Amino acid sequence: NILLKLIEDILDISQIEANMVKVWDEECKLNIFFKELYTLFLPILEKKGKTHINLILDLPQEDVSLTFDFIRLRQILSNLIENAIKFTEEGHINIGYRLQQDGYLMSFVEDTGIGIPEEKIGVIFERFRQVEESGLARNYGGSGLGLPIAKGLVERLGGKIEVISENGKGSTFKVYIPVTLPKEEKSNEVSPISKQNILSKYANKWAEKKVLIAEDELTNYMLLKKMMDPLGIEVYRACDGMEALEMVQTIPNISIVLMDIKMPRMDGIAATRTIKQQQPGIPVVAQTAYAMPEDIENGKKAGFDAYLTKPITISALIDVFTTYLPEREMDAVVETV
Question: Chain centroid to CA 29: how far?
Answer without folding.
Answer: 14
